[in-house]
Every structure is written in structure tokens, then in C-alpha cells.
Write a structure and sequence with these properties.
The structure holds 2 protein chains of 2 kinds.
Chain A (H helix, E strand, L loop, with lengths): L19 H8 L1 H22 L2
Chain B lengths: L2 E5 L3 H14 L4 E6 L3 E3 L4 H4 L10 E3 L1 H7 L2 E11 L10 E6 L8 E5 L2 E4 L3 E3 L20 H19 L4 E7 L7 H17 L6 E6 L14 E4 L2 E4 H11 L3 E3 L2 E7 L2 E6 L4 E5 L2 E5 L2 E3 L3 E2 L8 H4 L37 E3 L31 H18 L16 E6 L9 E6 L20 E5 H18 L11
Parallel strand pairs in B: 1-2, 1-8, 2-5, 5-20, 8-21, 10-11, 10-18, 11-14
Antiparallel strand pairs in B: 3-4, 5-6, 6-7, 9-19, 12-13, 15-16, 16-17, 22-23, 23-24
The chains are: A mainly alpha, B alpha/beta.
Chain lengths: 52, 485
């Protein structure tokens, strides 16, 4: 970063960038299988609370 | 026997038709009027726009479905509403103009006891000179035809890059008052994914332009979510994803006009800028479908039934008031029109009382703020609630029995960021409620347990499965009414 960061501040300088582990977990079959059911459960809760 | 006319067969109109057909279709007459012969699962159009899906995978013929439901289907567009009757009939009626090849241009009147306006948006490309695929220089993914055209242009651009050319691609919103940033958000990541798959990502300069104050606003004023021990604004994650994919962005921008290869835009400080492009997909602003309304004497009462933007006024508080005084009580509950209790407007067709995002104006007076989204899950929920109310009114209830206030309902958005069964990802976002409710949730206006977001393959699986589930449901396949809307 030090060697590259000679130009004026860029848009991409500030936002967080995912680490290798975060990127790996996004497509890890085991983890994403677990997240699939968590997301389903969260959306189900959302639907139940939205119904009038 | 009462006759219920539903104008429009999009997500909200078709939802209302399905349930009314199931609940009261045997005792009463359901009539659906839509200018399109086919139903379209619009959220998957972005995949048609990058060649991942064919038009047939996101559409199907409506006529056989309504035949199965026992409803009449008129392929026609509505021209006018006569809620008190008029010269052509004693009771309430609509006039329609047929759009199918056999009767194109013919007009007819159809009487009604109840009317549901679900006509959706007019894609108002004309608001920005040079915008759109028909009379302009940009593409769109708002209809299957537009998405096919966008993919043709995209593939031609990719082919040139494969020959060594470098190209500038721009995706976003084409006016200062657009909504539907989510569709553009999904599209830019699918374009990025396609460029990578084609091995030409290094030849492309990919840019985002929108009327949002910050990335991740989506017309809902953005969201706060809990992540990593902090409560963080969605802007952080939206910017992070842009940086990760090497996409630059411009926000607080109103596109003023488009010339071949050049977008002219104004930003909030009033300064004007240009953005060069070889390929651009810009979402148009929405307006209400052009319909007139007349009273019994034939006097034009369009301004009574419709807001100036063409959307139908319902039981919302349309009294102009400063932003500080906006509240959840302004938003409609039953979607019944105030004067005519047998007329309802659902989905995009109802007039929102005001923005959800904070109103912004450039130094030159140009409004630059997203309009409120009311697509997808809220559209279906509103359509079902109105169908329930009409069912109960037909059974003797004195007034609507069900509500679907956007300040009391949540929405889930599965934004594809690349389509692949093992390598694809999508941003899963849920928000509750859609319209922030600072009375109940003083800090952020939202329930922090039901408002969350994450990116991953699971989101892509969800989006892909829901694509098939919703099409299955819309086709009235066995057990359709047990599936969530």
C-alpha cells in the first residue's frame, strides 16, 4: 500500500475491503449451506411480522 | 354477482387476481385487463440482460392461467375510469383499447362493481432526452425486450474487448427522481461477473451513477445493520463491494441528457459534468400510466383521482408538509381511494405520500433524490391485502378488513452479484419496516433484528430458487396458495 499510495486520495482508499477469509467464506459450501437456512429463517420471521 | 376488474397483471395485479379467483371466483366475476400477453418475473430480467437466461425463462402466457382461474382476460390498456358511470353506461365502467393483434386499436367499455388499479409504472424515458433503447442511446432491463436488447449491446461490447479494445460501461439511474436502484445495482455486478467470465474485465472501465445521496440508499434512506461489533450503514458495504469489484461510482447525480457516447449530469452543488460511455444501462424514472377519469356528467376528474405524477391517490395523507413532519401515519393502509370506496390502487400504481429518502435539491433547484420503491415483496403484500379486503366486503364487511402499510411491513431483497451455482453470490438484504418508523424504533427507524444484510452464495441459491418458486406460484401450479408471496 505504501509504495502504491503516491497519488491523491482515491475513492477506493476508504471503504473496507474483505479479507481473503471473508471472500472464501462467501462461497464456502459448508458455511453457505448453514447461512442458507439462517437467511430462510430470518425472511420467515420478516414475513410473519409483516402480515396483517 | 359482482364484477371485479383488475387493471394490470404485474406482480401486484396478478397476486390480487390469483387470490380473488381462488376465494370468490366461483360466485363473482374476475376480469383482468393487461396490455401485455405475458406475465414477467421482473427481478430475473437482469439475468436476461447478461445472457444468463432466455426471455422464455422469465415470462409465460397469461391467457391460459386466467382461463384456469375462471377469470376473463382482456389484452388491452385502460384509457379512462368512470367511477359514477357516464354517457356510455349507468354504473361505473372503464374504457379500454385492445392491444392484441386481432383487435388492436378497438375500444370497449367494461362495467365494474370493484376496480383495482395495478397498472404499474409508465417507463418515463422521455423525461431525460436521449435516455432509453427506443429513442435514445442507453439500454434498460425494465422489460424482457429491453433486457434482450441490453444483452445484445453488452455482448457486442464484450466481443470488441476480446479483440483488444478498451471500453467504458456505465450502469445506474437516468434521472434525478428515479427509483429501482436495486435493479441497476444487481445489473452492474452481473455485468462485472460476465466481463470476468469472458476474460475481459481488465479491458473495461465500469462505473456507477445514481441519484442516491450515498450508495446503498435504494430509495429507502439506506439501512443500518449490525455487523462486526458495530451498527454500520449499508453505504459501507455497498462501497466495499464497488471497491472489491473495481467499480467507480458517482452519486447525488441527476442525468440531464444523453448523447451518443456521453452522459450529461448535474450534482447537488449545481455543477454539471460529463461521463463517456460505450455501453450504458440506465433505469428510467417512473410515472403513472396515462389514464383519465370522468364523472357522471363527463367532467374531467383526473386530478381528483390521480396525483400530478399519474399515480392514483389512496388513503394516504397527501397534505404537503415539511420533511420534519413526515411520519408513518402518512402512508396508506387499505389502498382504497377516498371518494370511491369501490376503487383501489396497488403496487407501483398507488401514489406515495412523499419520499422515504431525505429530499434533496441541487443548488440550481433540480430534485436529486430517489423515489420510494414499492416493487417486489411490498407489491405482492399490498395486492393480497386488497384482495382479502374485497373478499370480505363482498361477504358483508362494511369497510376494508386488511391493511398493508409500508411502515408496518418488511421487504427482502436478494440482489444478484453474479450468477453461478457454485461461484455465484448475491447480497441478501432485509429491512423492517420499509418506511422507517422512528416512533417504534427511535434510533434507526428499523427493527435491528429483522434488518440485516450479507453477501454470499446462499443468497444466490435463494434468488435462483425464488425465481422458480414465484413462477410456479404465478402459474397456479398445485399448492400455489401455500407458498409465501
Amino acid at each position: 500500500m505504501t509504495a502504491k499510495n503516491k497519488e491523491p486520495y482515491q475513492q477506493a482508499y476508504y471503504p473496507p475491503v474483505p479479507t481473503g477469509l471473508t471472500r472464501y467464506m462467501r462461497t464456502s459450501l459448508l458455511w453457505q449451506h448453514y447461512r442458507f437456512w439462517v437467511i430462510n429463517f430470518k425472511i420467515l420471521k420478516l414475513l410473519l411480522k409483516s402480515h396483517h | 354477482m359482482a364484477r371485479i376488474i383488475i387493471l394490470g397483471a404485474g406482480i401486484s395485479g396478478h397476486t390480487a387476481a390469483r387470490y380473488l379467483g381462488k376465494w370468490v371466483g366461483k360466485q363473482h366475476e374476475i376480469v383482468v385487463v393487461s396490455p401485455n400477453a405475458k406475465w414477467n418475473w421482473i427481478p430475473s430480467n437482469i439475468w436476461v440482460g447478461v445472457g444468463q437466461m432466455k426471455e422464455e425463462q422469465v415470462t409465460f402466457e397469461l391467457a391460459p392461467i386466467y382461463k384456469k382461474l375462471g377469470a376473463s382476460f382482456h389484452q388491452a390498456k385502460a384509457l379512462s375510469i368512470h367511477p359514477e358511470g357516464g354517457v356510455d353506461a349507468d354504473g361505473p365502467y372503464v374504457t379500454v383499447e385492445y392491444t392484441d393483434a386481432a383487435r388492436a386499436g378497438e375500444t370497449a367499455i367494461i362495467g365494474f362493481d370493484y376496480l383495482i388499479n395495478a397498472t404499474g409504472p409508465k417507463l418515463n424515458f422521455g423525461a431525460t432526452p436521449g435516455l432509453g433503447p427506443d429513442d435514445g442511446y442507453t439500454t434498460s432491463v425494465c422489460t424482457p425486450g429491453h433486457a434482450l436488447h441490453a444483452n445484445e449491446q453488452l455482448q457486442a461490447t464484450i466481443a470488441e474487448m476480446q479483440q483488444g479494445a478498451t471500453k467504458k460501461l456505465v450502469v445506474g439511474t437516468g434521472h434525478g427522481m428515479c427509483t429501482c436502484q436495486g435493479a441497476a445495482f444487481e445489473y452492474i455486478y452481473n455485468v462485472d461477473h460476465s466481463l470476468r467470465e469472458a476474460g475481459v474485465r481488465d479491458k473495461a472501465q465500469l462505473s456507477w451513477i445514481s441519484n442516491e445521496y450515498e450508495l446503498g440508499d435504494f430509495g429507502m434512506g439506506g439501512v443500518h445493520i449490525k455487523r462486526g461489533g458495530y451498527v454500520t450503514n449499508g453505504k459501507t458495504f455497498a462501497e466495499s463491494l464497488m471497491v472489491e469489484r473495481g467499480i467507480g461510482w458517482t452519486v447525488r447525480a441527476a442525468v440531464k441528457r444523453v448523447e451518443p457516447g456521453k452522459i450529461h449530469y448535474e450534482i447537488l452543488d449545481g455543477s454539471e459534468h460529463e461521463l463517456d460511455f460505450d455501453f450504458a444501462m440506465l433505469i428510467p424514472p417512473f410515472a403513472g400510466q396515462p389514464m383519465k377519469a370522468f364523472d357522471q356528467a363527463g367532467e374531467d376528474i383526473t386530478a381528483e383521482l390521480f396525483a400530478p405524477n399519474g399515480f392514483m391517490k389512496v388513503d394516504a395523507d397527501y397534505q404537503p408538509k415539511p420533511y420534519e413532519d413526515w411520519s408513518k401515519a402518512d402512508w396508506p393502509n387499505t389502498y382504497q381511494t377516498p371518494k370511491y370506496k369501490n376503487i383501489f390502487a396497488i403496487g407501483i400504481a398507488f401514489a406515495p405520500p412523499h419520499l422515504i429518502s431525505k429530499p434533496m435539491q441541487s443548488a440550481k433547484g433540480t430534485p436529486i433524490n430517489p423515489a420510494p420503491p414499492r416493487t417486489g415483496m411490498p407489491s405482492a403484500a399490498i395486492g393480497k391485502a386488497v384482495a382479502e379486503s374485497i373478499r370480505d366486503i363482498l361477504a358483508g364487511a362494511p369497510e376494508p378488513t386488511h391493511t398493508a402499510n409500508m411502515a408496518e411491513m418488511g421487504a427482502a431483497c436478494l440482489a444478484s452479484t453474479g450468477s453461478h451455482i457454485l461461484k455465484g453470490t448475491a447480497a441478501t438484504m432485509t429491512v423492517f419496516p420499509v418506511v422507517p418508523d422512528y416512533d417504534t424504533y427511535p434510533e434507526y427507524g428499523r427493527d435491528m433484528d429483522l434488518t440485516f444484510g450479507e453477501i454470499g452464495l446462499a443468497g444466490h441459491w435463494m434468488k435462483y430458487i425464488l425465481h422458480h418458486v414465484f413462477i410456479y406460484q404465478a402459474k397456479l401450479r398445485p399448492g400455489w396458495s401455500l407458498l409465501p408471496d
